[in-house]
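Any chance you could type out a protein's amino acid sequence plus the matching backbone structure tokens because I've never seen that pairing?

——
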Amino acid sequence: MNDMTNPRPRRADDGLGPTSDIGAKLRALYGAVQNEGIPERLLDLLEKLDQAEQKANAADKSE
């Protein structure tokens, strides 16, 4: 049955809608991740990938 005698209390309307708490928490999480540095190991891997790509492009052009 649907008991509507004790509905959940409503929050004050902040103009942002019902998902404003979720949005604020996601923005905080993404901001924290964005402020983290890129691991040196990942930067090394990306450099190796760039070098391999340049070699492959040079080989394609020489053919």
In short: The radius of gyration is 26 Å.
